[in-house]
Task: inverse folding
């Protein structure tokens, strides 16, 4: 099955700086790549996703890039704020199949 | 509209006991799945279902059973609890595994096996 690796496991940045989280996947048939945010003690929630027919997608301060050749995708958060502090999960899925998640990145934004 | 409801929120089991974690959704989602969350290991898929009467195994299915008799309910059964099953369990539902709306997760069940 699909295997998703995520780096780094922890990331600490100053408020206002950018944060980048990277993921790689193993199955070249994967075509859907969502990112979820989990605040402390809460359930994961979808923040952005990208499909294999595009290379980049942006939503305000959040952007995701996809490199199908290298089988990796990244989450970029600009102008970080304390409320961005959370655990972020990447995931990958093959058409109409189950979804596999990365191990998560704990992002801390220091005021 | 309650979304995805998981019960119980907390549970302590003794090794060898069995129990069922309940999951119900009221969004008419066809796709439902169970994940376990362990520190440093992210969310690992246990079982999933693409519709009533259809279930399939994920990456860590051993020790767990599921059934999907209705669209709304997707219970997870632990057959004989082991300390390795100590974890936080999340149920999730969606219109499909690649729905633009993403997964709706339940609030989780924290299970401790002693």
Result:
């Amino acid at each position: 099955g699909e295997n998703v690796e995520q780096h780094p496991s922890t990331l600490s940045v100053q408020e206002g700086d950018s944060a980048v989280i990277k993921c790689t996947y193993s199955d070249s048939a994967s075509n859907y790549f969502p990112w979820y945010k989990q605040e402390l003690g809460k359930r994961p929630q979808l923040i952005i996703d990208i499909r294999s027919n595009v290379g980049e997608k942006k939503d305000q301060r959040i952007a995701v890039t996809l490199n199908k050749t290298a089988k990796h995708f990244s989450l970029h958060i600009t102008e970080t704020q304390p409320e961005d502090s959370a655990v972020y999960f990447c995931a990958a899925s093959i058409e109409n199949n189950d979804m596999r998640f990365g191990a998560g990145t704990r992002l801390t934004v220091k005021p | 509209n309650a979304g995805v409801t998981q019960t119980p929120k907390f549970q302590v089991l003794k090794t060898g006991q069995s129990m069922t974690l309940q999951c119900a959704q009221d969004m008419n989602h066809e796709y439902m799945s169970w994940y376990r969350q362990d520190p440093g290991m992210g969310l690992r898929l246990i079982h999933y279902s693409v519709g009533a009467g259809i279930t399939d195994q994920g990456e860590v299915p051993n020790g767990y059973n599921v059934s999907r008799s209705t669209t709304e309910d997707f219970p997870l059964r632990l057959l004989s609890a082991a300390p390795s099953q100590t974890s936080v369990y999340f149920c999730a539902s969606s219109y499909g595994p690649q729905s633009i709306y993403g997964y709706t997760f339940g609030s989780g069940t924290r299970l401790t096996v002693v």
Remarks:
- Chain A touches chain B at residues 1, 6, 9, 31-32, 34, 36, 42-46, 49, 51, 89, 91, 93, 95-104 (CB under 8 Å).
- DSSP finds no helices and eleven strands in chain A.
